[in-house]
Amino acid sequence: MKKQIPVIVVAGFLGSGKTTLLNHLLHNNNGVRIGVIVNDFGAVNIDSMMVAGQVDSTLALTNGCLCCAVDVSDLDEMLDKLAHRQSGVDVIVIEASGLAEPRTMIRLVLGSENSLVEYGGLVVVVDGANFRETRQSHPELDQHVALADLLIVNKTDCIDAAEREAFTDMIRGLNARAPMVETTHSHVDPALLFDFAASSQPSPGEQLSLDDLLRGEHHDHTHTQYEAVDFVSDIALDARAVTRFLENQPAGVYRIKGYLNFEIPGYTGKFEVQTVGDHVRISPLRWKAGEPRITQLVVIGTGMDSVAVGEALRECVRGVGVEPHPDAMLGLHRYTVGA
Q: Is 284 exposed, middle or buried (0-12, 13-18, 19+ CB in 10 A)?
């Protein structure tokens, strides 16, 4: 069964650095095939993304990128072109117009009828040089920042050192939970946004396996801007405690992925969990023959308290000899698909 392809929405006001971010991702993809959708015909210089001119159809490029220019109303049609059974795309990045409403873009992705895609998060690029002035005439930018699953504060070299702390405190005041990366030229470690393909994988379309994540193969990047907390437990988890953790994630957490083991009557299978920001998705699976029935999780973020994350996960372990509550799984049902 083909893994779902994460769709990441990149938003930010005109000139904030969205296209520069896309260029950076395309040049540092390490074999990941990136599908790009641009929802703005006139305002975006698509040449800067190595596409010759404006396009309204899928193009296969030498760098493994597929790029489309599209109106918002045609988004699902473009997703269908990029995400299908024979697609080798690993991740899709949508560059929203500088004047777009991110909430609308999120709603369109979440409402897609393409079963092969999943929401991969809202990344908001903040223009450190001009945000203070721009928000005066565009107060809606405050809401955009508040919606973000990941904040990229760009052009920090344009902020006076004495003012930088006050500026980032202002941004943090608009969104206290999302991870925040301070950068210049939108240079963000791609491993924070999506998984690199493992060199040993036979299929270029597969995501990095959890085993590879736990071995730390994606940690070998210079100037790493993210942290990863690995958690393994051979003792079953308390489903209610897991629900509380997922619904109240520590500040700075961007993604959680892995497998959960509850060992509750009627729920003895393996549960795959994928989160981005506050968006949680849980899929019931079966254990393979001989597979150890353990919980394996990776929590990825930046600026998070790794010690606190580890402690919070350990608190989810069910005490030895403690019987699970009969309604323990109710809280997780709202996030479970395919049950």
A: middle
Residue 301 bridge partners (DSSP): 227, 253
Domain count, the chain: 2
The SS3 of residue 124 is strand
| Total Cβ atoms within 10 A of residue 29 | 19
Listing DSSP states for 13-65 in one string gives STTSSHHHHHHHHHHT-TT--EEEEE--SSSS-GGGGT-SS--SS--B-TTS-
Q: Tell me, what DSSP letter sits at residue 287? A: P
What torsion do the CA atoms of 239, 240, 241, 246 make, to the nearest 10 degrees?
90
Q: Could you tell me if 13 and 159 lie in one domain?
A: yes
Residues 187 and 282 in one domain: no
Q: Assign residue 272 the CATH number of its domain.
A: 3.30.1220.10
The domain in which residue 74 lies consists of: 5-192
What is the mean pLDDT for each group of 10 consecutive residues in the chain (339 residues)?
Answer: 84 89 83 79 40 36 50 77 84 82 88 92 94 92 95 92 90 95 92 69 40 41 70 96 96 95 92 94 93 95 94 93 85 85
Six-digit token string for 142: 């405050």
